[in-house]
Amino acid sequence: MDTKISIIKDIHNDYKSIEEAASVIKKGGVVAFPTETVYGLGADGLNPLAVKKIFEAKGRPQDNPLIIHVANKNLESLVQEIPSIANEIMDRFWPGPLTLIFKKKDIIPNVTSANLDTIGVRMPSNEIALKLIESSGTPIAAPSANISGRPSPTDVERCIEDLEGKIEYILGGSRSDVGVESTILDLSVDPPCILRPGGITLEMLKEIDERIYIDPAIMKKNNENIKPKAPGMKYRHYAPKAKIKIINGNTEKTIEKIKDLLQNYIDNKLKVGVMTCDEHVKYYSNHVEIISLGSRKKLDEIAKNLFEALRSFDDKGVDIILAEGYQEKDLGIAIMNRLKKAAAYDILEV
Ligand code: TXA
Ligand code: MG
What we know:
L-threonine binds at residues 37, 69, 122, 142, 182. Its EC number is 2.7.7.87. The chain is α/β, with parallel strands linked by helices. The chain folds into two domains: 4-219, DHBP synthase; 243-349, Threonylcarbamoyl-AMP synthase, C-terminal domain (Rossmann fold, 3-Layer(aba) Sandwich). It is 30% helix and 19% strand. The protein starts with a strand and ends with a strand. Residues 35, 37-38, 40, 64-67, 99, 101, 113, 116, 118-120, 122, 142-144, 181-182, 184, 195, 229-233 line the site of threonylcarbamoyladenylate.
């Protein structure tokens, strides 16, 4: 399939490509597009045949539901009940990196919700995404625009890498600002439960209802007894080709341990990468591939650069990535959640 690629520099001058992409959506095709979290792979969320094409292009398991993207807060036609807390939460955090789960109406096809009776809805803040949804005149179902299992793309080049030839249209914009996927908050249960941590943090949501909590299953390795409530959280995910080991805890011990391990791997002729921060870059020798995610004092920078760093290590062909851990607080919860999944929970506490 020929993929049309159109990169928007200035939304006001390039409006034509949004219209073009919207006409692809209306005709049941698939379009990759920017959002503030990560790039999405979108189709008409109310058209089962269109939605099926997303699963095919991504190689996504059929039992993993999609979320739908809307351009306003009027959800009456899509969901059954809107609890009063939902209005407060939408007013505070929409548009933005927060997906809300509601009981769905029958208008949402079963392929979209993977046969669940609930649906995730998000109003993104990215201007191109909003205009695309508006022009399409339908909610856009969209998972992250990566091949299933790979780290989510945060810029258009990574979308092209994964999806050129597989979909009709790639709409490019600027780099994604948040860098990790949206927080998912289940409002079909009481108290509301966070199914995936993201840019809207637990601490921020607790200001609205202090009973809100994180699904305990998602910070742990999958086991038989507790399964995460978001189906997608059970898969190995965000994974580059290289193996990842996280070293977490006391700063000096972390650096010492990484240096130790490094030497060991190098002696065994492995190509090693270190994923560090601006503050610690100077401690590692230049015999290894080093990527800094930014300053430890700015967790939003760390989150923004995380997936791109994982993909860059693959480009460099490293066999193993040694990654420094972060404190599981605020945005650090989302960062560690993605890191742990990428590392298949190989984590060394020091
Ligand atoms: O930031 C984002 O959310 C991005 C951008 C493109 O909007 N989208 C995204 O979609 O990350 P995806 O499909 O990669 O992740 C959606 C997650 C999956 O883990 C899925 O299992 C879960 O949401 N999910 C979707 N619908 C659900 C539902 N009704 N109940 C529980 N979990 C659900
Ligand atoms: Mg995804």
